[in-house]
Write a structure and sequence with these properties.
The complex is a heterodimer of chains A (359) and B (180). With 359 residues, chain A is α+β, with helices and mostly antiparallel strands. Chain A has 10 helices and 8 strands. In chain A, strands 1, 2, 3, 4, 5, 6, 7 and 8 form an 8-stranded mixed β-sheet that branches. In chain A, a hairpin with a 2-residue loop joins strand 2 and strand 3. The longest helix of chain A has 49 residues. Chain A starts with 5 loop residues before the first helix and ends with a strand. By secondary structure, chain B is of the alpha+beta class. Chain B contains 5 helices and 4 strands. The chains are: A alpha+beta (359), B alpha+beta (180). Chains A and B meet through helix 3 of A and helix 4, strand 1 and strand 2 of B. Chain A: Its EC number is 4.6.1.2.
Chain lengths: 359, 180
Amino acid sequence: MLTIEEQYIDQLTEAIYLLVSGKQTQTIAIPEDLPDNEIRQLYEYFNKMIVELDKASDFSYSLSRGELDYEAPKGKMVLLQSYKNLQASLKHLTWVTQQIAGGDFSHKVDFMGDFSNAFNEMTRQLKEAFETIQQQNKKLEDANATIRADKERIQTLLNSILPVKVIDELNEHGYSAPRYFENVTVFFSDFVGFTKQSSDIDPVTLIDELNSIFKEFDHIVTEMDGERIKTIGDAFLAVWGMHLPLEDHAERAIEAALRMRQFLHKRNENWMLKWEVRIGLHTGNLVGGIVGETKFIYDVFGDTVNIASRMESNSEPMKINISDEVYALVKDKFMTTQRGSIFVKGKGECGMHFVEGRL
Amino acid sequence: MFKEERDESIFEWGMLGDVKLGRPHLGEHVPVDVYRLMQFTLRDEMIRILGVEQTNQIFFAAGKKAGVEFVRNVVGKQADMNVFIEKLQMFLKKLQIGILRVEKADLEHGLLTLTVAEDLDCSGLPVTGEEICVYDEGFIAGLLLEQTGKDFNVKEIDCWCSGDRVCRFAIEPNGIEVKG
């Protein structure tokens, strides 16, 4: 029969009492002279249990603080094993959450009871919200692209109607004030017999003809740094030295006129419809500005414009007629033939010269 | 095919046969106990005859072969490692092999810590203080070899038998790129 002293029972009782009261419990010191019997065995196992419980407590405390890298202690107690399982699940959840945060919504959590359902539902909703945002962003991008394209189209259209500097003024200030330009060269051209010829051609072909010729005229004017102001039927009006100051504005205007004439000559050789122009140029001052409100154009005004027009109407088919003022600027550059004068009201006699070619 | 002598492995997936055809009444599934009965008796005899080390080598090699074939015939090689892991998880769950989870993944350096819960080989076994899932180590090595073309060291660091509730595998590159 095993005899047990009361103190051994008391020690065990006290240790267990501290344990269940939530207090720190130390292992029980086993007396050296305690025989190797059931009591000693009980003490040894109790102490092992205390050690394992301590480890499990430290581990669970670290888990409760979210310290997932805490190295799980070795042990066989079911309690410890359950904590280790919990730690493994939390580590996996951390990884899954990181994948979702990175935009990969394909991951699911399984076999974690209610948490699985809640987590997977949250992921599903995140995915839906993300896709909705992506679709909206795509719509926004498309809308922005449309707006940009429209803006470019409008800009192109404006560029074809107004000088660039005028557009800049409109954009910056909302209006563009008329300006006085000194020492510019005005160019006028007009088709010979247009009215008669236009009655013999169908309207579509007529417009195509005008369009084809004026496109090339525009190209030449731009090449020579001029500004096409407008066309009035078959008349073409351009100016050099206005928004882009040019010292050689007259020379450039005449060079443009020569190129236009050459273009028409070549075109007439190869095309069934033959066109001839009269060209006139004059140098002086003018005023330029926007006219109109709902439908506006940029136009130029003044005697210089009127005289240039008179130069044109007093020119001859495929001839370039320049005034004295233009002649004075270009006489060292071009071969000319003097050809009399016209009376200009308010100005008097105005000399005229035909330009034959470059010197 | 099944019993001839060989120096090279000749296993191929087709050798598994058509179980549906062969078992129209009993079906394609058996209890885990039956699977373990075969594995553990085989392991027992092999250890008795060949020793622990050689038995482990055989189990690892067999597992690796199985892992390679599993990717080729079931999972499929994926363009992205994350997609591969996701598909692997799905198939291991579907085929009731285990619940694969990722604890750590440093894909840039090829470092992974994977866990397999409810592992086919060991979950529910007595706690003996051993890590016994050598076949699974080989299996995972085979999976990664086929997916990445690289050899990996796979070591089970926690097992049901060692007292954990999941099998935990530490994985690192072997530094050998396998061609062909």
